Amino acid sequence: MSTRTTPVLPPTEAAPPTLPPLNPIGQAGRDGDELDMPSPKKPSGEPGNGAADTARIIPMATLEPQRWANGRGWTREIHREPAADSPQTVAWRLSLADIEDTGPFSPFPGMERHLLSAAPVPLQLSIDGVVHDLRYTQIVTFGGTSEVATTAVHGRAQALNLMVRSGIHGGLDLLEGDTQLSVSAAFATALVVLDGIVTLDDRRLERFDTILPGTEDTRLALQGATVARVRVETSAPDAAPAPAQHRPRPAPTPPSTGGPSPREPTPAR
């Protein structure tokens, strides 16, 4: 079992963002990630947002896709968390996008963005004039005001998107291989199944199903699997903005039977 981290970049702005006005040309922006999109309806029997003792599962099959205003893709919002001091302010948001064509991303002042290439399809992004060729499970982090565009896509790409409000540390990393471990909110804010066999308390999860761990430990088992781990810390010092970064995918490591030994995120510079 191995764990890989992506650097946590410092916030771009100290002021918390507020929800933008409704997009006049559709619910989803040009890249499908408008914060004014309606929150996903919770499936019958699934708990709502907020703190919980036990882990919650958000099945991807229950999330309604929203077509982008430019017609070049779709977005499914997995979860959004309001700020504790302002319910109208988004603290963080997790979504999955289907990218079918090239085009610009929408700007989000006051947010940091973390994007993971979630399909075995090459995806090329231009971020502030720098080209990033992303392959499956590679992660790139950039500011909400960066000039970002999809410049090449081969087939239908998919991207897991985490947006966090400035002043909050957040990031994505990976759990890979074969293992059994106990997970709680202290270990991860959310866990998204990317591939392989993943079970939570013996319940088999499907691709892109999401776990929101609770305060109690829950048994998670991976067999030849890859899971994206989301971690969000709601307290972070202000710092100067940093350029976009992405970590190349290293050579595979032999799976182990023990639990992961997560490394701490790279400190903000």
The low-confidence parts are 5-28, 37-51, 236-242, 251-269
**Overall 3D form:** globular
Main sheet summary: 7 strands, antiparallel
Q: Give the number of DSSP strands.
A: 18
In percent terms, what proportion of residues is strand?
A: over 45%
Query: What structural class do you assign from the helix and strand content?
Result: mainly beta
Rg, rounded, reads 17 Å
Helix content percent band: under 10%
Distance between the termini: 29 Å
**Number of helices, where a helix is a run of at least 4 consecutive DSSP H or I residues:** 0
Mean pLDDT: 78
- Give the helices and strands as they follow along the chain: EEEEEEEEEEEEEEEEEE
Give an account of the 3D structure.
This protein is mainly β and 269 residues long. The protein has strands spanning 2-5, 56-58, 66-67, 73-83, 86-99, 103-104, 111-117, 123-127, 130-134, 139-143, 148-153, 157-165, 169-183, 190-200, 203-205, 210-212, 218-233, 245-247. Strands 1, 2, 13, 14, 15, 16 and 17 form a 7-stranded antiparallel sheet that branches. Strands 3-4-5-12-7-10-18 form a 7-stranded antiparallel sheet, with no helix packed on it. Strand 4 (73-83) and strand 5 form a beta hairpin. The chain is globular, with a radius of gyration of 17 Å. It starts with a strand and ends in a 22-residue tail after the last strand.
